[in-house]
Amino acid sequence: MRAPLRASLRLGRGRLVARDFARVRLEFGVEALSLDVADLGLGARWVSIAFKDENHGAFSRVELSAVAEGTDGPQGTSLSERAFGHGRFTWLGRLPAGTTSLRLAPMLGEPALSIAEFTVTVRSRLALVGRAALRRPVLTAKALFWRAVGKRVRSQHRLARALVPPGLTGYDTWVRHFDSLSEADRARIAAEVAQWRDPPLISVVMPVYDPGPKVLEEALRSVRDQLYPHWELCIADDASTDPAVPRLLARAASEDPRIRVERRPENGHIAAATNTALGLARGAYVAFMDHDDVLPAHALYEVGKAIRREPDLDLIYSDEDKIDATGRRFEPHFKGDWNPELLYGQNYLNHLTVVRRSLVEAVGGLRPGFEGSQDHDLLLRLSDRLDPARVRHLPVILYHWRTAIGSGTFSDAFLARAEAARLRALEELVARRGWPHRVERGPLGFNRLVRALPDPAPRVSVIIPTKDRAELLRVVLDGLLTGTDYPDIEVVVVDNGSTEPPALALLEEAAADPRVRVLSRPGPFNFSGLSNDGAAAASGPLLLFLNNDIEIAEPGWMTEMASIAVEPAVGAVGAKLSYPDGTLQHGGVVLGVGGVAGHSHPDIGPDDPGYFGRMVIAQEVSAVTGACLMMRREVFEAVGRFDAECLAVAFNDIDLCLRVRKAGYSVIWTPHAALTHHESKSRGKEDTPEKRARFEAEVATMTERWGPELRNDPYYNPNLARAKALFRLW
């Protein structure tokens, strides 16, 4: 914390500043700040909490929570704030009864707090109802109805939703509110950088070949206008034929000693030219930039700040967008954190990409012959040596990629050649690592890594909890036993007390197949307990937890999953699940969506590739659904199996996957194992008071156990909306 926090509390129309009442105590520490409000009577009252986060962006880097005394000691409740632009965030709602303090902590992965203002305002319930009625009258009426019949929690939830103001729309609006530096921002950054000791030198390397002079001049200007002054621009002119280009470069070098230019005697294409520029670099880190693109003014500052915070970083990359010939910004790419499985398929890192120079030199720089995918090839070779802990994604737009036709961008003109180079780069990675796998062209020209199964193939024990609904169970059993080409399958059907004659007859029929075992487990439905019992009875080293409402769509799905699950670094594997109409049901799980977690890309059409192709490429995710989840038995036992005590029905799969990741394993979702899911047809909906109470208890378990993780899914992006995982801003 660089400056004292300005905190205030408004009670009704009055205003009390922190120094005016001794009972408010601010505690500053490395990890958190606590505002003691025990004697102020804020518990069970409607309040608005507003604060300003000095870190620039569309999301708060602060976790706000209310701490209340409970029967088992202090209990924290996370308060999800809403962004209003220019670093300002607000939460409006009813604080838990018995609230004793308000806590501010850095979000997972953030080093410290940077809060400039903090205000608590007590609100009148009558005034809030009036405001809500103007915004959302139907929802407000429902809130009043539930209040009248004594359902206070339900009423409070609906009133809070009705009070949320309409969201912003459009990327242009987002840029104005969340990605436009004010003069105060610029002054703050300049003052901060001036105090840094031994700031890292960042070498921006730029190959140049016949760009339009205007766009080249704009690219150069964007580097010279950086708020972070400790850079050098290393340019290799790749024998440009336009005489205006070397004249422009010579003038820029004469005006700023930080700009260094070397003209190549002959055109060697982008890889050779980039290597020439690398040869000029003296900085510990190199940033790659094309000759017609633009860096925002704070780009190198954000990179330098990350390096100062973590001096051991080897690779830093950022979010990006595109600009057209008029400079209009569009099509932002908000990325996830380090995801090597996704990198096999596509180069999702560029741009802005910054790498430790010694590491680039150690792998031999860029390779001629991979033009069009030379950056992807470099990143795949770097990945052989990278420690994931030394890779950092900055969720900030730090690169504007020009898309004007005719600008000289190599891959625009040679897409087919670029795809071939990308495929060859992955083939060479497979060969370097001695893998028995093969590489093929996947959907939309992206790479696909097809893993080889061990010989002999390990047995897959399929565990299916079920009750009645013979028409569903018959479909999944037929698909497993006759429609799947995997060589060694065992099916363990865990019957939760079926009573319908068709179901009993089907279970008897299935048990006659030597590949099928039927366990009788009557009693209340407990997915975790049933699955644990099935796993204990299974004999295979690979366990596949499968719902009874799954329909097999193609024969090779299990081979795809098993070939990934056997890898030592992999802890769990999930499949692509679609509804019967072809729309997507499960594309991996995004944490924090809807409160705890939600499916990625819900309800997109069968031909929709998803956000930047994400739904056609295998990738690491935070969790996958237990409707179709495969893992090695040794991992399942090591992490403690499903939680049958606290998570009987909901979120047990999310909890299991989070424990898998905490143990150091990855969770992989693959679109190349595709099935149809008739979701929850056998179990039904959460439509009774008992089911709702159980569900709310399971939500509480997850938020208490995994609160920080739920707010910070590494494979999503904090700039994107979390009502649903639609990969949209709003």
From TrEMBL:
UniProt cross-references to CDD domains, sorted A to Z: GT2_RfbC_Mx_like, GT_2_like_c
GO biological process: single-species biofilm formation
Keyword Electron transport carried by entry: no
Molecular functions (GO terms): transferase activity
InterPro entries from the UniProt entry: Glyco_trans_2-like (IPR001173), Glycosyltransf_2 (IPR050834), Nucleotide-diphossugar_trans (IPR029044)
Keywords: Transferase
One Pfam family here: Glycos_transf_2
Protein name: Glycosyltransferase family 2 protein
Organism encoding this protein: Methylobacterium terrae
